[in-house]
Amino acid sequence: MKTLGIDGCRAGWIAISLDEEHAGYWLVESDKQLEEFLVEYDRIFIDVPIGLTRESYERECDRQLREVLGPDYQSSVFSPPIRPALHAPTYAEASMTSYEITGKKVTIQAWNITPNIKTIDRFLQEKEELREKIFESHPELLFQKLNGGNSILQKKATKKGLRHRLGLLKEKSKFADDFFRDIKEEYRRNQVDEDDIVDAMVLALYAGYSIEEDIKTLPEDPPTDETDLPMAIHYV
């Protein structure tokens, strides 16, 4: 099975495979190219909200994830827009819709990732077969697992935090060091940030692990949204 990790970046998406036979990295800059990757690969871990609530501001999976990550990393978990606000043309209209239904506005951070949410949601609505192989995950949860269940003390935006994460990846994959260096050399910082690279790699690593090990979720018995998409954070 071909596995892939995908994370959003300034230029679109960074996709990485750490499979022995299919290892590689790709900057994905169009929806058409992204769709080709989603169709081609058999198991994909992606850092983007998938199932969306209709009336509740906070998804249960996000609440539990914040609890697991602890206070230092709660800000890395964004509550996505509720489904009625997803296709609002402006931030003001999305926030107004959210406020009228939930009593809370959409955060700027959540609005900034809304284009990515809409893109993945559209593919999952149009091609139901993709639902069997695309799994929402979260890099900081996976790094916590990779670090023996302990949160990394330094944030990935710091040099020390980035080195720690890359060091953990290098212990598990022979491709990690070369890919990190090559991606930095091939693409500009206004296309792909360093933290996007390590995030995509840890997603790729755990997508690979999920072939041999059982996938677990937050929450343990996740609900589905009105379109039958699971509202869950997946990990191994």
Automatic annotation (TrEMBL):
Q: Which Pfam families match?
A: DUF429
So which domain of life are we looking at?
Answer: Bacteria
Q: What is this protein called?
A: DUF429 domain-containing protein
Instruction: State the species of origin.
Output: Fodinibius salicampi
The record's section on InterPro entries has:
DUF429 (IPR007362)
